[in-house]
Amino acid sequence: MSGLLGGVWDFVVGDDWTLALAVVLALGLTALAVAAGLAAWWVAPVVVPLFLLASIRRALRSRG
Description:
Blueprint: H1 3-12, H2 17-35, H3 43-63
């Protein structure tokens, strides 16, 4: 990708689209929890590290 759209994509998604998806899911789950009247402080600290661990495992498997 090139140009402005490519720059935005690289900035937001970076090298691993699954981590970008984790952030979006964490924000969505947080919004749903708040809308339901639940405490939502715990969502991002749980979701994002799980996806990060999965990303690291995937990278280690691809190395051999």
